[in-house]
Amino acid sequence: MSVLDSLAPCTPGRWTHDHVTVERVESGPLTLRRNDGRLHVTHSLGPADLSERLVAGVTASIEDADFGQDEFELTMVGLVRSTVPDPLDAWVTYYRNSLGELLDGTADFAPIHDKAAELVRGRVLDLGSCFGFLPLRLAGAGTQVTATDILPGTMSLLDAVAPRLGLSVDTLVCDAAHVPVPDDSTDTVTAIHLLEHVDDTIGAAVVAEALRIARERVVIAVPFEDEATACHGHIRTFDLDALKRLGESTGRDFEVFEHHGGWLVLDAS
Fold first, then answer.
1. Helices 152-164 & 87-104, crossing angle to 10 degrees?
2. CB 148 within 8 Å of CB 210
3. Cα–chain center distance at 38
4. Residue 128: CB atoms within 10 Å
């Protein structure tokens, strides 16, 4: 996939990147069609529909097994960009709606964010932040937080949107296994729904890096799935036993428990 600029201009109501086109129509359900190697998505969403809730709707609309992570992400970006004409206004709408649903408990991910907010201590560095909803939520509660992601575009988007939401979040573009910050430089490191995206070796390196950086604790959350959800970029699955083995491998004190998926909390002190 060519480099994606989520804020690049597009024709109102129609967004295209690589082989994916997303178009807003007057009425009708979310529809995905393939033709000569191209994917054409149509929808009739309005600004109030733009939020993380779309993830479930798009996932439910996928009927072919070849729908990979790149197409899923491009579809999500296209839905946002084709619904509100101004690029930044479109993303501010998406972020504001999503944060509202996370805070009022109506979003599927809300219990996970609630538990993460309960577990963090002091200053936080979040690994694999993607859109950065957890860092924004923590910032809104007065926590000093740094969001990190390997994709520069997601951090640039967060830098653009956060001030419009009245929130302050530091950002850092980096690999979660190689974070350019000193040892013991933050109180808590979080990795929320990150490890399912990487293999065992990289996952172990991410955990070791988190322990290097954290002064107090490392908070890890993963989904429990029977099969890894490929369109979300998942490549492995977890259960409580797998999390326990991961905790034991660190040689640190730890706690493992289930809450809308699995959690591993490591003592970094």
1. 80
2. no
3. 26
4. 21
CB-based contact 259:111 (threshold 8 Å): yes
pLDDT per residue as tens digits for the range 125-142: 999 999 999 999 999 999
For residue 125, what are its two tokens? 């560095």
Going by DSSP bridges, is the β-strand pair 145-149/124-126 parallel, antiparallel, or unpaired? parallel
pTM for the structure as a whole: 0.94
Distance from C-alpha of 78 to C-alpha of 66, rounded to nearest angstrom = 19
Question: Is 37 exposed, middle or buried, given 0-12, 13-18 or 19+ CB atoms closer than 10 A?
Answer: exposed
- For residues 183-187, average pLDDT: 98
